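Re: beginner question about structure tokens

> Can someone show what the tokenized structure looks like for a real chain? I only ever see the sequence side.

Sure, here's an example I had lying around. Input first:
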Amino acid sequence: MDRRDPRAWAEGQQEAREENEKKMRELRDKMERECQEALRDAEKLARIEDDELGQLARQRREREEKERRQNEEQRFRELKDELINYDFQTSPRIKKESFRDLEVEDINMLRIVLIGPPGSGKTSFVGKNRFKSYVI
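And the corresponding structure tokens:
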């Protein structure tokens, strides 16, 4: 290019501007593609993390439910052992005095449960006719 020729210089300037604009468009397009790709990757990663957190939450809930059931079963076994080994004659928990001045107007029926191992005389105890079933 001859710098002394103003027309050639102007054409060179125009070509340089067009080349710069072309490179700028290419860079903008490349940045836009990379940005879109980064957004897709971020969304994919977020979905994976959400799935993992959901699985962790489900596992935590299942573990808590299992622990709750185990604690409930343990309390039931302790209560069962306590009831089986309880001696009503030597250590009654409910004293007769507890029933004095008891308001029974709202009680329709009272049920008493006899608990004990087979052959301990539960049926014989009930069969003595000392106790009758009353509906109030």
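Each token stands for a local structural state, so reading them left to right follows the chain. DSSP finds two helices and no strands in the chain.
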